[in-house]
Structure formats: C-alpha cells, structure tokens
Amino acid sequence: MTTEEMILDKCRALSPDKKEEVLHFVESIGQKASRKKPYPSLRGLWKGHAADITEEDIAQARREMWGNFPREI
Fold this sequence. Notes:
Elements: H1 3-12, H2 16-35, H3 42-46, H4 55-66
C-alpha cells in the first residue's frame, strides 16, 4: 500500500468536518512549499559595493587575528 493510499483510507474514516480540516492542512502545506524564496547568490549580495581588498589587506587581517594566538599547546 502506498502512502497516498494509506492517507486516503484514513481520510475516508473521518467525519466531514475533519475531512475539511485535513483539506485546509494539505493546502497550507502546499502554499508554504511554494512560498520559499531561493537564496540570493553571494555575487548578488556584493553587487554595488566597492570592495577593493588586496593580498596585503588579507595578510594584515590574518596577523591581527592570529597575532596573540598561543603558539605552544
């Protein structure tokens, strides 16, 4: 028996008001699934921002972050 058939069997045993409730629930699940927006690309997030980062800028940031990190464990 497929999942769809099992759901249909269980729905047939419900009272009319419960069937209506199931219908609203299934419709709300479908609406939630269709409302999901795709994630924007990272390129799109940076569009319009002038970010001129050089290798030296990255090296300096690394030195600042790791400068006080203990060398001995």
